[in-house]
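Input for the complex:
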Amino acid sequence: MIISEGIEAQARLGAPALLRKGNCYVESVSQITGFNIVSISRRHRYLLARIEQYGNDGLTWTYEEESRNRCRLSTGGIPPIHARLGLNGRTSGHLADFPPPFEALALGIVTQTHGGWTSAEIDPQWQPF
Amino acid sequence: MSDPPVFTRLASVYFEDLAIIALTARCGRVEPVLYPTLDDKRRSTLRSRLKLISRYDWPSNQKEDPDLRRGYTLRQCCRLIVALLLIDSGVPPAAAISIASNNEFGMLRAILNAQRTSTYLGECQPTDEIAVIIKGDIWEQVDELGWNASKAQQVRFVARHSMKFCWSDEVDLGSSGQRILIDISTAARAVFHWLVARRLVSREAVNAFWAEIVIHSAAPAFQMVRPAIPRR
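Predicted:
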């Protein structure tokens, strides 16, 4: 609720309905969850987060909520095509070693994206506030 | 079900971040900034200043690029970097965009040269090309012939280790007068590092962009195009 009000204040300044990394609310959520939350935006009363998680060699996985029914989990590496097809409907733990709670998300279509990465569609779970 | 997005364009929501990265790029910064932070008020001020650039149909307009709403191509990003650096050095927006558009390929080649030398931000490369601009607003009024002979609209490039040539006939710059120096290489290196490290644009798109500059190697570095006029 506080984050939504923060976004409201941003919108009143004529800015996009988006809180970036560095904003106190985003930093607080990052600290509590332990994930590198890059932005929290609002679209049709839904708060959408974007996470970019880094390892020793740079970016390792990203989680992006794009809209109410569109959400994407991406990670480095490309599984073979037959393995990729078999991932549909399984949990994200089968795709890569994600930390909880990201290891138990149901995978949708898994595709190969740029830079040797794999991206999976996720059915997002929403919490009312 | 939809296809995953194709990352050939930088989403316009990152325009302010691109400006911050380009303007704050410094040689010797070992840890590059990936997430520039700015308080809401300053970001709002920056946003309104950046809106000025689009009034000059820069980096492009809807007619020239119907997909502009989807974001900026890498070439448009380079156009923005050049315009931002010029405006930051005190050149008025109309003149900055005129210089940037007239010298587009020269600037692009300087950016490509910087990427070929190193993509590492840790230290300044001696071969980095510095853009040298002769402006001479008052000079033009008092000595038009001399000003015309200096080819003031044409940007010349001098390597960082050869800065003594900024006042030299060897690079067609003459031996006197005022100059504006733009470190395009460091700014572009920081921006491209940021784009690739955060996967905002695909590495394939970046490589294709470098190849595109090489293909246009015959294009003149300076080409007089219509001066930028703001839209009403």
